[in-house]
Amino acid sequence: QKEVEQNSGPLSVPEGAIASLNCTYSDRGSQSFFWYRQYSGKSPELIMFIYSNGDKEDGRFTAQLNKASQYVSLLIRDSQPSDSATYLCAVPTGANSKLTFGKGITLSVRP
Amino acid sequence: DTAVSQTPKYLVTQMGNDKSIKCEQNLGHDTMYWYKQDSKKFLKIMFSYNNKELIINETVPNRFSPKSPDKAHLNLHINSLELGDSAVYFCASGRSGTYEQYFGPGTRLTVT
Predict the structure, then answer these.
(1) How many angstroms separate the CA atoms of A36 and B41, rounded?
(2) pLDDT tens digits for range A58-68
(3) Average pLDDT, stretch B83-102?
(4) Which positions in chain B touch A30 (Cβ < 8 Å)?
(5) CA pair distance A63, A55, nearest whole angstrom
(6) CB of B35 within 8 A of CB of B43?
(7) Mean pLDDT, residues B43-72
(8) In this complex, how many residue pairs, one in chain A and one in chain B, have their CB atoms less than 8 Å apart?
């Protein structure tokens, strides 16, 4: 099993809908989880991180963490065309602040 | 502006050549990284330096040699470039002991 898996996608939702992006990880000891957004031709940008089980909300974005099931999700409410991008899940693996990234999920929000 | 910057933004070169990419950050971070993003958009770490010391050295051909003259700068030199080296190379920085990383704009390397 890969350390970080993002298997669904690409994802297309209509404007105003909720987009749900999922990520699973293999290391039960992982304590923190990161979501990056990458617009086409641009660099990854950190948008959310979560350390505790449960939900963390920031504006239209909610990160959900379930350590027992080893998955972390990103929900985007009231999706906008400007949310169209690739979303990368990242999990610390090993020492020295090393992050392992999933392959990303490409989200397209249809006007 | 406070940021992570990279030069050059684009690099087109022929197989066999040697090239360098430079990165600078003025965020006051003490850890810097090099990532490679291939055509399938998979982002993979290559190297990391903390205060000029190499702390992450993934399985990367030894044609790739990073150098950090100080904690604000990280360079990547690539010898004998191959077609498979074509990718976008991102520099990132962060604070040691944390995992939040901030990326530069990337250098698109094309080897012909």
Answers:
(1) 13
(2) 999 999 998 88
(3) 93
(4) none
(5) 6
(6) yes
(7) 92
(8) 52
